[in-house]
Write a structure and sequence with these properties.
Blueprint (H helix, E strand, L loop, with lengths): L10 H8 L1 H10 L7 E4 L7 H8 L2 E4 L10 E3 L2 H13 L9 E5 L9 E6 L2 E8 L4 E3 L10 E3 L9 E3 L4 H14 L3 E9 L2 E8 L6 H6 L4 H13 L1
Antiparallel strand pairs: 1-4, 2-3, 2-4, 5-6, 5-10, 6-9, 7-8, 10-11
């Protein structure tokens, strides 16, 4: 149907945006600041060693994962090798399409921010509450590394965030690069600028945050549909 009738959201772009690798690649090719990344598998694993040595730390991410599940901090090549080879030995795990390895950037979890956009307009920025933060292993040089993690996959527990101009500009650039009507972007703050670390095809649509921003989710979706019909 989407070949002859306009469907919202666009199902073809949905497939691109749902996969963290193809989403990252789309943004990077269009000049949007996104985490550096590589795609690896069990056949070219050795190519990751010099890159990982340069990065220092990396994040192994399920390409179509969510809620922080499976996101693993990698501190050296041997840890990465053992994980990939374990997966290779397990039946039913297909490594042929590649596994996403993303550069870890020094950042403060207190500066993490997510954005929600509808039809190109930034609705708001928001932060997960500390109850949604989870530590990685404590064995990494006595340093603390965290991720957002939701074991029950229920979402929620958010506060309105401090949306800086740089966040809005980056979110707008990413929206137009992806061309997906309803989308969200997770950002960290590294040095003096934000970096996109995740794209959300099911962004946070929180009624309480719409109310705090004096916006209407219903009206925003209605305007999106009306514009599509023009």
């Amino acid at each position: 149907m989407a070949c002859t009738v306009k469907v919202i959201p666009n199902p073809y772009i949905f497939e691109v945006a749902l996969d963290k690798y193809t989403a990252h690649l789309t943004l990077k090719q269009k000049g949007v600041k996104v985490s550096d990344f590589i795609l690896i598998n069990n056949r070219n694993l050795y190519l990751a060693k010099p890159i990982l040595d340069k990065w220092g730390y990396a994040l192994l991410k399920p390409r179509k994962g969510s809620f922080g599940k499976g996101v693993t901090l990698i501190d050296d090549f041997s840890r990465l090798r053992d994980i990939i080879e374990f997966m290779e030995q397990e039946r039913g795990i297909n490594l042929n399409e590649g596994i996403l390895l993303e550069k870890y950037y020094e950042n403060n979890p207190q500066d993490w921010l997510s954005t929600t956009l509808i039809n190109g307009e930034v609705m708001y920025g928001y932060r997960k509450k500390s109850s949604r933060f989870s530590n990685f292993s404590n064995s990494f040089e006595s340093r603390s590394f965290q991720k957002v993690y939701d074991s029950d996959e229920i979402g929620g527990e958010v506060d309105l965030g401090n949306l800086k101009q740089q966040h809005q500009q980056l979110a707008s650039l990413a929206y137009h690069a992806m061309s997906y009507e309803v989308i969200g972007f997770d950002m960290i703050w590294h040095e003096d600028h934000p970096i996109i670390v995740d794209e959300n095809t099911f962004p946070g649509l929180y009624p309480n945050l719409f109310k705090l921003r004096n916006l209407s989710l219903v009206n925003s979706m209605y305007q999106l549909i009306v514009q599509a019909l023009i």
